[in-house]
Specification:
By secondary structure, this protein is of the alpha+beta class. It is built from 9 helices and 8 strands. Helix 1 crosses helix 4. The longest helix has 23 residues. The protein binds zinc ion (2 copies). The site of one zinc ion has 7 residues, from helix 4.
Amino acid sequence: MKNKNLLSSSIEDYLKAIYQLQEQDQAVTTTALAEELSISAASTTNMIKKLARMKLVIHSPYRGVELTPAGKKIALEIVRHHRLIELFLHEALGLSWDEVHDEAHKLEHVLSDNLEDHIADFLGDPKEDPHGDPIPTKAGVVAIESQQALAELAPGTPAQIRRVSDQDPAHLRYLSDLGLVPNATVSLIESAPFDGPMRVRLGAQEHILDRQLARQIWVIQGGKPTRRREARNKKEKRNTT
Ligand SMILES: [Zn+2]
Ligand SMILES: [Zn+2]
């Protein structure tokens, strides 16, 4: 993309954040965006105006902030960089899944097309990053899967973990210690009323899980009995590579 080098990393961060909020089916309001980026509402408002002038977003009172095709193209490229780098750091350099997000956030803005292709080749054109997030293809195609938050699962329903939010390293360490990682099969035993904690089963074990944490875990319904083993292998691999 010709003018891409002219874009500041802060513009790229905004476009990526808008994309990721849309990905979570959230209406992208100035407030949500400011919160996502930990930036003041005033600067966010200014940036949205700037992005609208650059024809990268459209801002309307009813629909919030939406990416234009040009804005989406840039966002997807940055998302691809981010997730490829996370997986590369994890698989090739052995960083654990709670360490890769912050590193990838810095490197995603400086990755050349050439190095991006080499990393993708090295990893065998991967479909998902270490947190289960889909990696857009070079052409900007993303595999969409209909997932629900573990927090919304009905009791007794087996489910397979697909994706865990990559934002909080301490949460990630805690969840991987419990074995709550992508591909693990869980079932919800019960959830306490009034947004209270949830009791989940993973293999032979039961865990009490804070509801807020259960909102950061995305699942699909149904599970396979072998998953626990896969989750274990994944964990072992993480520790040893
Ligand atoms: Zn990340
Ligand atoms: Zn990730």
